[in-house]
Design brief:
about 425 residues, mainly alpha, Growth Hormone, Chain: A, 14 helices, globular
């Protein structure tokens, strides 16, 4: 167990490093904006318009089916990117092609008039976007020295967390202009990814030794023994638990505002955008400061643990005060905690990867990404079950989220290879 290694001469310095940092920040900002805007606002609105009575169950089904395919696509795409040989490098082809197919499918979603056609096109978009995401994440392990990954992760984390908020704001205000909203997200991600590949030329990989795929060995490689690699297993568990809590609330936030807080449909769209703006300020500030402090003190675990605990506290606020006051508190505190967690989590993940002479970082980081995707399957289903069992009492979702997020903090503590 140790830090993911890449040849030292692949690590970037000076203007090239800064350009790649900023490009990663922009790309992840737009990708997370797409996810939050589409999953948190546009799709829930579209699904509710198609069938108001079944909206909660249909949304849970959409999340579950999407996440099954995403969970499979992410580690497989990461493993295949490790083996990709081209003059554009190992990761760039996946970023360019994934963004193209994903954006075309996403724009098609805006024209769908049935739940099933909507789901098919969205699943296609999700597979494409999740195929390019591990390639972008792995560039942090490929191109940055381990001791500088905290600040890189902080900058990228600020972009990601800012994107999650900005996407909600944009989608909230454009919810009534569906085609424009979907087109804006799809076009922005496509242009950004193509520009990313063009201005951050990856070293060619076509001269590297080729790794033929032996399918039995290929699929066995996705099992990483918790006994042999306990830090990897604890990091996976921590990520899994925190996203089980966070996704349960995030997926149903629009319906929480309508059915728990009591806002009308139009007011809830505006409210989710306004709450997101409060979160944005806290997210970006927390991410940048946490990333800088993490590199300064060369510590990762304390920031991830504290971020998890703060997130749990945020989810208690709407339980104490089930009104907009509680939601404003939630929005601010979740921004601080999630910004701290996200900014350091990525750096920590690159430092718990199993050591490999074969260059399997893309596959291993893809596996860790499934700790985000699997909760997207389970948490909406869990939330839907809780709502059915407790007569649409949305407070049960917050209670479950608190338990999961607090449990996540305890899974970070046993990690030994990262301080």
């Amino acid at each position: 167990m140790g830090t993911a290694k890449a040849p030292a001469d692949n690590y970037l310095l000076g203007p090239q490093r800064m350009r790649l940092q900023l490009s990663l920040m922009v790309n992840f900002f737009l990708l997370m904006a797409l996810y939050s805007g589409v999953l948190g606002v546009l799709l829930p609105n579209q699904i509710a318009e198609l069938d108001e009575g079944s909206k909660a169950n249909n949304l849970a089904l959409l999340f579950a089916v999407t996440s099954i395919f995403s969970t499979l696509a992410t580690p497989i795409a990461g493993a295949l990117s490790d083996r990709t040989r081209s003059r554009w490098g190992k990761r760039s082809p996946w970023i360019a092609i994934g963004s193209l197919f994903g954006s075309l499918a996403l724009f098609g979603v805006s024209w769908m008039t049935s739940f099933w056609s909507l789901m098919v096109l969205w699943v296609m978009a999700a597979i494409a976007y999740n195929s390019m995401q591990p390639a972008m994440t792995t560039l942090i392990a490929d191109r940055f020295a381990p001791e500088s990954r905290g600040s890189v992760s902080g900058l990228v984390g600020a972009g990601m967390t800012g994107g999650l908020t900005a996407g909600t704001v944009v989608a909230g205000y454009l919810a009534g202009e569906r085609v424009l909203a979907y087109g804006l997200f799809a076009g922005a991600v496509l242009v950004s990814c193509l520009a990313f590949v063009a201005i951050n030329r990856e070293p060619a990989s076509d001269a590297m030794p080729r790794r033929p795929i032996v399918w039995g060995e290929f699929f066995r490689g996705f099992w990483i023994s918790p006994k042999k690699h306990p830090d990897f297993a604890w990091a996976f568990a921590s990520r899994f638990l925190i996203y089980m809590g966070y996704q349960a609330v995030a997926a149903y936030l629009l319906y929480i505002l309508r059915d728990y807080i009591g806002l009308a449909d139009e007011a809830s769209n505006i409210a989710i955008a306004n709450l997101a703006m409060v979160t944005l300020v806290c997210l970006v500030t927390s991410s940048l400061i946490s990333g800088w402090l993490s590199d300064k003190f060369q510590r990762r675990k304390p920031f991830v643990i504290l971020g998890s605990l703060i997130m749990g506290c945020a989810m208690i606020a709407p339980l104490i005060s089930p009104d907009m006051g509680g939601m404003w508190t939630y929005a601010a505190v979740i921004g601080v905690g999630y910004g701290m967690f996200m900014s350091i989590d990525m750096a920590l993940m690159t430092q718990v990867l199993p050591e490999s002479a074969l260059g399997d970082e893309g596959k291993d980081l893809g596996i860790l990404t499934t700790a985000v995707n699997i909760p997207q399957i389970l948490s909406p289903i869990m939330a839907a079950i809780l709502l059915n069992l407790f007569a649409n009492d949305y407070s049960t979702i917050f209670w479950a989220a608190v338990i999961f997020v607090f449990a996540s903090a305890f899974c970070v503590m046993p990690i030994r290879s990262v301080r």
